[in-house]
């Protein structure tokens, strides 16, 4: 949980999430490089997947933004 109704944002958990994503990026690039590929092959593969499924990505992004906005409205009491 990165939001606590009493104390607000849990910046340690947010920082941990970013560090985890960075670790996965570096680790997958390292594994790809040691297996004979390029360091950015996993990233390019992910970007290729997102480009192939652009409509689904846009719909998912829109739904997540709407969900976040409705949650924020509930939290601030609108």
Topology, please?
Layout: E1 3-4, E2 8-9, H1 11-34, H2 41-52, H3 54-76
Antiparallel strand pairs: 1-2
How would the global form be characterised?
flat
What value does the Rg take, in angstroms?
17 Å
Question: Strand-and-helix sequence, N→C?
Answer: EEHHH
SS elements, strand count: 2
Distance between the termini: 22 Å
Biggest pleated-sheet summary: 2 strands, antiparallel
Quick tags:
mainly alpha; 2 strands; 3 helices; 76% helix; two-stranded antiparallel sheet; 78 residues; flat
Structural summary, described in words:
This protein has 78 residues and is mainly alpha-helical. The protein has one domain (3-76). 76% of the residues lie in helices and 5% in strands. The protein contains three helices and two strands, in the order E-E-H-H-H. Strands 1-2 form a two-stranded antiparallel sheet. Strand 1 and strand 2 form a beta hairpin. It is flat and about 55 Å long. It starts with a strand and ends with a helix. 0% of the residues are buried.
Quickly describe the structure:
The protein is mainly alpha-helical and 78 residues long.
């Amino acid at each position: 949980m990165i939001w606590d109704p009493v104390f607000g944002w849990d910046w340690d958990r947010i920082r941990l999430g970013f560090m985890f994503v960075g670790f996965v990026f570096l680790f997958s690039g390292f594994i790809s490089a040691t297996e004979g590929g390029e360091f950015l092959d996993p990233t390019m593969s992910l970007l290729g997947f997102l480009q192939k499924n652009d409509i689904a990505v846009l719909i998912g992004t829109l739904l997540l933004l709407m969900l976040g906005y409705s949650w924020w409205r509930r939290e601030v009491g609108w």
